[in-house]
Design a protein that fits this description.
The structure holds two protein chains of two kinds. Chain A is an all-alpha fold. Chain A has four helices and no strands. The radius of gyration of chain A is 13 Å and the shape is globular. An eleven-stranded mixed beta sheet of chain B has the order 5-4-6-7-1-8-13-12-9-10-11, with helices on both faces. The two termini of chain B are 19 Å apart. Classes of the chains: A mainly alpha, B alpha/beta. The interface between A and B is small, with 13 and 10 residues.
Chain lengths: 86, 409
């Protein structure tokens, strides 16, 4: 488990008050009873943790914990370095 | 018109998170006012406030009472309200006898969401941070009433009334009128507020009305109010309904009066307060000679207590006013703004139900210029020849609300 996966699972576990070890990449948001309000709350915490911004159209396609982790990896890879000049 | 009675009580307050604990503190004089601890949101090295005490609810963990989702989506004012309302409804068995669609929820709240909003604004202005996506739902004024309706499945009229320090009293009064008129068959009513943030305390400190020592209502040396937080809730239904299901009846609400001073945004005005007291007695079809107890607004400021005394003299007459036992319970539970009227209504209802009038904690030397019979140092019993009890709320903005109760024999 890499650091991103570990942190994402921690955020979701804290948000739903459940043990982190009950969550895997395959766990779906439906299984965790994550409603729309939970989803924007988790997205905000993930954005803050990784200094990224999840596009609105990507939010709707997140169905599993793995979707979150893969999305974070992708956004971080595409993110320009902090000291990059335009 | 229907006679309206109280059949359920619930509270989360600085002097008890259950009605039993509240009652014990009320009659034995255990105050919830305590030294202020460190404020996590206060800037480092900040001088803070000039006063040193406030009345906080202790031992309240929202996660023990609601789902993580609800706890995350709510701020403390709503959380206190949800628990107090649920306790009142469960305790009364109200929803076993009344349809959810024919039941109202009328709650008073003045400072909803402040504990969620203030740190967000600090981050926004000082660090250009983003706002949390739940800020809107945590800070909307009706959050408490809406969550109570979701929690209890009540689908009738649901309202939040915001009239500063009279919010809880106005809410109970409006619910009383709705049940009395038959608009709804039952109601959940009360007040809830959690305003003890660093910014709020600083704002009150700037007004120079908070006691640097301890709230001592009606005391000759009184020097201000002490802020608090909490919630108190009631279930209201008709006397007929309560009797038919053998419910415990704590008191009857017999009258409600309200008025506006139209005078000044902060200065109390005895004409306006007197008008509300007279209106409550008229609504109750009662005379001043029937008033056997007044739970005063009694903030402990020089201005409030002297103006309230003047109003009582104007409304009851100067022959009767000095003979009516009066106390303020704010030196026990603090001034919780939108909740305080409901907490004081709870004290008044318990006084009638247990035949014990609470005393004004902390006051030993009553201001003789007020010419009132202030209950100090020990409780008294209710005079059976004077069965009406009033609960006064006189809010900033010049909005006054007075409830009249009596025991049902």
């Amino acid at each position: 488990m890499d650091d991103i996966e570990k942190r994402c699972i921690e955020i979701i576990a804290k948000s739903k008050s459940i043990p982190a070890d009950s969550i895997t990449l395959d766990t779906s948001f439906d299984e965790l009873n994550i409603d729309s309000l939970d989803k924007i709350n988790i997205s905000f915490e993930v954005e803050e943790a990784f200094k990224i911004e999840i596009p609105d159209d990507a939010l709707g396609s997140i169905k599993t914990v793995g979707d979150v982790v893969r999305g974070v990896h992708q956004l971080r890879e595409n993110k320009p370095p902090a000291n990059a000049t335009p | 018109m229907n006679r309206v009675v109280i059949t359920g009580l619930g509270c989360v307050t600085p002097i008890g998170n259950t009605v039993d604990d509240f009652r014990h503190s009320l009659f034995t004089g255990i105050t919830g006012i305590a030294p202020i601890g460190p404020f996590p949101t206060a800037p480092a090295g900040h001088p803070g406030v000039r006063f040193t005490r406030m009345a906080q609810v202790v031992g309240f963990d929202p996660i023990q009472h609601m789902s993580t989702g609800t706890a995350t989506a709510t701020e403390r004012a709503a959380q206190l309200g949800i628990v107090a309302a649920r306790n009142a409804v469960e305790h009364s068995g109200l929803l076993k006898a009344h349809a959810p669609e024919d039941t109202a929820i009328i709650l008073g709240c003045s400072c909803a969401g402040r504990q969620a909003e203030e740190p967000q604004l600090a981050n926004l202005y000082l660090r250009d941070a983003r706002a949390h996506p739940l800020t809107v739902v945590r800070t909307m004024a009706n959050a408490g009433a809406s969550h109570v309706s979701i929690d209890l499945g009540i689908t009738g009229p649901v309202l939040t009334i915001s009239t500063a320090c009279a919010s809880g009293t106005h809410a109970i009064g409006m619910a009383f009128h709705m049940v009395r008129s038959g608009m709804v068959s039952a109601a959940v009513a009360g007040g809830h507020d959690a305003p003890l943030t660093f910014g709020f305390l600083r704002a009150w400190d700037s007004m120079r009305v908070v006691s640097p020592t301890l709230c001592r209502p009606f005391s000759a040396d009184r020097d201000g109010m002490t802020l608090g937080e909490g919630a108190a809730m009631f279930t209201l239904e008709t006397l007929e309904s309560a009797q038919s299901r053998n419910a415990t009846i704590y008191a009857e609400i017999v009258g409600f009066g309200m008025s506006a001073d139209a005078h000044h945004i902060t200065q109390p005005y005895s004409d306006g307060a007197a008008k509300a007291i007279r209106a409550a007695l008229k609504d109750a079809n009662a005379s001043p000679s029937e008033v056997g107890y007044i739970n005063a607004h009694g903030t402990g400021t020089q201005a409030n207590d002297s103006t309230e005394a003047e109003a009582i003299h104007k409304a009851l007459g100067s022959d009767i006013a000095p003979t009516v036992p009066i106390s303020s319970t704010k030196s026990l539970h603090g001034h919780s703004i939108g909740a305080t009227g409901a907490i004081e209504a709870l004290a008044t209802v318990l006084a009638l139900h247990h035949n014990q009038l609470p005393f004004t904690y902390g006051t030993t030397s009553v201001d003789p210029t007020l010419n009132l019979d202030v209950i100090t140092e020990t409780t008294r019993t209710v005079d059976p020849l004077r069965p009406i009890a009033l609960s006064n709320s006189l809010a900033f903005g010049g909005l006054n609300a007075v409830l009249a109760f009596r025991k049902v024999d």
